[in-house]
Amino acid sequence: MSDAVEALRAGKPVILPTDTVYGLCALAHGSEPTERLYALKGRDPSQPSALLAADLEMLFDAVPELLGRPAVIAAALLPGPYTLVLPNPGRRFPWLTGSTPEAIGVRVPVLPDVAARVVTESGCVVATSANLAGGPDPRRLGDVSPELLAQVGATVDAGELPGTPSTVLDFTGSEPRVIREGAASAAAALARVTLALA
């Protein structure tokens, strides 16, 4: 665990388990770690990535504008296997929001214990699946490309994960939009949000 924390603090990408797939992560505070992550993955800088926090308190500290409706939505679904695209009026973390700085994707997964401790100790991370651009989502650390494994600062192995990426829901418009059906039912999530907002 300490190796992963040290690597993140040094600005190096690391591979961490989440509640869905293995993630390629870098410290979110400051643009350089995210730029290294994108270069390593071969990801287009115009594509957004998620801000991952260990808990809701950490998330709201990082993006204090998530008040009112966005906070209610987040609290209804997180922690859980969802990526929520929420309004970002303060244009926080522009290096990970891609071509849509007015919106930010956020994740508060149910992390395996060791990964939770890493993120709690290091702070919010930018997270994307631990694959090269267009590659399969890794269920096991052994599924991660050797090219990635050779270049990250540390890895955390939590065994086999579910292997289906998070469900992505966009709440920035007048009506919610399902961007990706993933590890959890989008319809059930939207129903929970409707109840929470009622």
In short:
By secondary structure, the chain is α/β, with parallel strands linked by helices. 31% of the residues lie in helices and 20% in strands. The protein is built from seven helices and nine strands.
Overview of this protein structure:
The protein has helices spanning 2-9, 31-41, 56-62, 69-77, 113-122, 146-149, 186-197; strands at residues 14-17, 22-27, 50-52, 82-87, 103-107, 125-129, 154-155, 167-170, 177-180. The chain is an alpha/beta fold. A nine-stranded mixed beta sheet has the order 7-1-2-6-3-5-4-8-9, with helices on both faces. Strand 8 and strand 9 (177-180) form a beta hairpin. Helix 4 crosses helix 7 (186-197). The longest helix is centred in the C-terminal third of the chain and has 12 residues, at 186-197.
SSE layout:
Layout: H1 2-9, E1 14-17, E2 22-27, H2 31-41, E3 50-52, H3 56-62, H4 69-77, E4 82-87, E5 103-107, H5 113-122, E6 125-129, H6 146-149, E7 154-155, E8 167-170, E9 177-180, H7 186-197
Parallel strand pairs: 1-7, 3-5, 4-8
Antiparallel strand pairs: 1-2, 2-6, 3-6, 4-5, 8-9
Helix pairs in contact: 1-5, 4-7
